Amino acid sequence: MAKAPLLQLSDIGLTFGGDPVFEDLSLVVQPGDRVALVGRNGSGKSTLMKVMAGLMLPDSGTRVAAPGVQVGYMEQDPTMEGFATLGEYAASGLDPDEAYKVDMVAEGLKFDPDGDVKTASGGERRRAALAKLMAEAPELMLLDEPTNHLDIEAIAWLEQELKQTRAAFIIISHDRAFLRALTRATLWVDRGQVRRAEEGFENFEAWRDKLWEEEDQQRHKLNRKIKAEARWAVEGISARRKRNQGRVRALQELRAERSAQIMRQGTAAMAFDGGAVSGKKVVEAFDLTKSYDGKQIVKNFNLTVQRGDRIAFVGPNGVGKTTLIKMLLGQVEPDEGEIKLGTNLDIAVFDQSRAALDQNMTLWENLASDPVLGVSGKSDQVMVRGQPKHVVGYLKEFLFDEAQARAPVRSLSGGEKARLLLARLMARESNLLILDEPTNDLDIETLDLLQDILGEYDGTVLLVSHDRDFLDRVATTTIAMEGNGQAVVYAGGWTDYRMQRGGDFFEAKQASKPLAKKDKKSEKKETQSGLSFTEKHRLEELPTVIDKLNAEIGKLEELLADPDLFTQHPVKFQKAMDALVARQNMLSDAEEEWLTLEEKAAS
């Protein structure tokens, strides 16, 4: 027997003071759906998600959620008025006896529930919003850019949790590796229409390109037909005026059809100009050591950056990636060691906080008041790599229309702000690019273009990112910052680093020193133990995993021991039962794995 849909939108229409965002939009979300919601920046993805969540009312059409179904929405910019701490906000939708769930999720997402709301960063607030959604465990989760501000370890934790959940979910994300791992269907928002494919994001680009090819073929056929009918009209209408007015009207209808077609948005005219050539050696670091508040950032770190290198810095949030880059640029003094900067360096910086943009100024003013470019806020021109261009013309190259030029930056989406910052950055010549989380909020097409132009850039790139796919496509060297002052240099991108490291990120984090060549004695001992490097670390990790699962089971059993829970809160009772069964199964698997590895180690 087929299950009823969790959510259904029918004939949705929505307009924001001009062209419609959606017209006659209909879609259905089924139990167990795992859907990627994709589309260009500004296409209406977040708006559609808010309509699904019931937070935004459409101008026309209906939204119907199944009776008793809870739809949860992760806000990008959560309002936390009235809450003292992040944990208090995250637990606000839970009964007091379920507040422990926030602590469990907070551990995986790595945020402090006791953190003060007033001083929390944007990233901490977003993690609290994600924790709130995960702890509430609704039947349908709507996740808008959940991986922004998460490090790779937290992303891996979230990915694993979503793989195990029974809930349906819809995800907006720029993280292709995340979408490929989780989704089984794709919703594509394109020019006011929403198309659905019953395939995960893995096949999105091939599906999109096929639809575009079919669209181009149809447009070509229509143009040929209009051309033929127009020729007939010129040559034959005077002799058959009365008899062929129907054909003339058909020609007018064909032309109207072509006019009504919405052309695809092009790609931004992105380009980096390498400018003057830097010296062959860009940066040399000798025995760098640095600590902050008793926390070791690096210890005895050495590095040579050559012209043309693409070096990625990876590691947990707060480990010191940005600090290390600032040390390499001479902006932060090391406690010990020496930095030598190369000659003729021209540095351009893309910062993850978008601090270079004034949120209250217009797009025009943000471009035309850049002191680095030598222009004032009243100018109507901007110097683009040494050549003057009209501000509006330059903005159009980055897919902004003339109306947006006079709008404040705060009205832009996250992806549009990133695109504006790239426009500022690309107006200058540079030979050393510092990119701190450049992929946040960018759509897939813009990411593809950014990767291509970085590949053609003549200068050097230092990159901080948690986007595994982006790292694989761009980085030629990866510096893994694993805590306790440990910063190890590996050849290649993220996947290359994992292969060389001998395991996943969790194993790398637990290791206290870099891999080195094993001497014959240690090789013989490892061979005799029967455990590989990965298995050995897994065996050491499993007791902690088992203890954690036992603690969670104990809390759930305590909750279920309440005799009134079943009669007064049957939905909560069922959720607790499901969670208990799931954790008992996980505990059984973990114990069996531990026994297997113990036997193998003893053999």
Structure description:
By secondary structure, the protein is an alpha/beta fold. Among the domains are: 7-206, Rossmann fold; 358-428, no CATH class; 520-602, Helix Hairpins, CATH 1.10.287. Helices cover 42% and strands 21% of the residues. It has 21 helices and 20 strands. The strands form 5 sheets. A 6-stranded mixed β-sheet has the order 5-6-7-3-8-9, sandwiched between helices. Strands 14-17-18-12-19-20 form a 6-stranded mixed β-sheet, sandwiched between helices. A hairpin with a 2-residue loop joins strand 19 (477-483) and strand 20. Helix 7 runs antiparallel to helix 8 (245-260). The chain is globular. Residues 505-528 have low confidence and may be disordered.
